[in-house]
Amino acid sequence: MGILSGYTVLDCSIAMAGPFAAQRLGDLGADVIKIEPVTGEWQRHAPAGGVTGNEVNVSFLSLNRNKRSLAVDLKSDEGRKIIRRLVKTADVFIQNYRAGVAGRLGVDYETLSAINPGLIYVSMTGFGEDGPYAKRPGQDLLLQAISGAMMSTGRAGEPPQASGQYIVDAVTAYTAFEGALAALLHRERTGEGQKVEVNMLDAITTIQMQELSVFTVGHKPQTRSAEPHAHVYIRSPYGTFATTDGYIALAMPQFEAMAKALDEPRLADLDEMKAGWEDRDDVFALTREAIGKFSTADALERLNAHGIWAGPVYTYADLVADPQIAHNGTFVEYDHATEGRVKTPGFPIRFSRTPSEVRYGAPRVGEHTNEVLTAAGFSDDEIVEMAKSGAIKSLDA
Fold first, then answer.
1. Does a structural domain hold residue 215?
2. 65 domain-assigned
3. Which of 33, 160, 274, 359 is a Cys-bridge partner for 150, taking CB atoms 3.0 to 4.6 Å apart?
4. Between the CA atoms of 78, 359, 121 and 129, what dihedral angle is there, to the nearest 10 degrees?
5. Which CATH number characterizes residue 368's domain?
6. Domain limits for position 304
7. At 309, which helix (H) or strand (E)?
8. Is the separation of the CB atoms in 282 and 229 below 8 Å?
9. Pair 263, 191 in one domain
10. Residue 91 CB coordination number (10 Å)
11. Could you tell me which Pfam families the record lists for this protein (predicted)?
12. How far apart are CA 363 and CA 360, in angstroms?
């Protein structure tokens, strides 16, 4: 049994950030009930990479394991009745609706906390529940842009570069996950429930703690280089460099050691700190020229032999085949009812006494509706009538 076994989470969230946060709670053993429309949550119909799957697309599959699906129409009286009953015994409620939607559906904090004062209510938004940007769409790329993070990447004079991952969604998910755990700890000590507000703008801003402090405290502006330097606040060379057969990543080497490793005496003649900051483009170009003479394996062997931080630039295929990944058990595999054998990233935290496990694959729409409602005290006749009225969807109906 997982460390959160015995806790119940009602997941009313959509897309990535909310479902990912709820999945992490499920991975730790919580009973996560995914409350979704009878037509299925939005992510079921928006597959990343166009990978639709047999019945459950990969996007949904990756963000909703260890959950049970309750398909219910929250716009119906019967649907709201179901939520009110479930909330009575729930521990955590997660939603990331647009501003005002939770209130219209009757699942706002004031309404639900009146039913269960011990409830941990996690509200996730793009920019905050109020304020001048409250109604703006909380989309990952737009948040990368407004947070200032993009302006630290790419070449000077060219458009800033976005992350190749849904980084804001992921950071927001982990922020909400952390907030839910902290609030549960507070409740264990005091018995008090509370509202936990998380927004994407604050999440991506605060993760730039070091960079923004350099700006606000050290008063050093973001200055991008003409060369593709990887970080505005780290001396050159710092970034990725082409070899004769691929790429390597190189981080903050000592110039004298690098000169020896790459047979490039011009590097040893440079003042490491002065040139590394003031002549970043020249240093980067010289390093690129030196590394470009070697194969990836040869360059890494030479650099590592001199204690220089350097490593390969992997594709996903390389990552999945890596021996350390295999040793760590980073990926998990399980059988899914409609998608067959599934291999996905697993659990980043290891507990010696309460290990995480895959108890459920991502559910089909309404797969557990009858199960959840029966446990909540609804009779078979009530469930049948709600299914007939369209208030719920059940695979058993």
1. no
2. yes
3. 160
4. -90
5. 3.40.50.10540
6. 238-242+247-312
7. strand 309-312
8. no
9. no
10. 22
11. CoA_transf_3
12. 7
Per-residue pLDDT band for 397 (boundaries 50, 70, 90) equals low
Tens of pLDDT, residues 152-178 = 988 999 988 899 999 999 999 999 999
Q: From CA 49, how far away is CA 373, in angstroms rounded?
A: 35
Please provide the DSSP assignment of 205-225 as one string: HHTTHHHHHHHHTT-PPP---
pTM of this prediction?
0.90
Q: Rounded to 5, what percent of the chain is helix, strand, coil?
A: 40, 15, 45
- Do 70 and 178 sit in the same domain of this protein? yes
Is the same domain home to 270 and 130? no
Alpha carbons 209 and 257: distance in angstroms, whole number: 31
CA dist list (Å): 380 to 158, 363, 372, 384, 391: 63, 22, 12, 6, 15
Residue 71: strand pairing partners = 36, 393
- Rounded to 5 degrees, φ, ψ at 335 are -95, 135
174: phi then psi, degrees, rounded to nearest 5:
-70, -30
The residues near 200 (Cβ < 8 Å, ≥ 6 apart) are 17, 124, 125, 126, 127, 138, 140, 143, 168, 169, 172
For residues 376 and 370, is the Cβ–Cβ distance under 8 A? no
* Whether 284 contacts 240, CB under 8 Å: no
343 in a structural domain: no
Residue 31 lies in a domain: yes
Co-location of 139 and 29 in the same domain: yes
What is the token pair recorded at 328?
A: 């760590």
Contact 19, 64 (CB under 8 A): yes
Same domain, yes or no: 50 and 176: yes
* Tens-digit pLDDT profile for residues 248-293: 999 999 999 999 999 999 999 999 999 999 999 999 999 999 999 9
Beta bridge partners of 392: 72
| Euclidean distance between CA atoms 199 and 168, whole angstroms | 10
Question: What is the tally of structural domains in the chain?
Answer: 2
Residue 70 CA to residue 34 CA, distance in Å, equals: 6
Chain centroid offset of residue 57 CA: 18
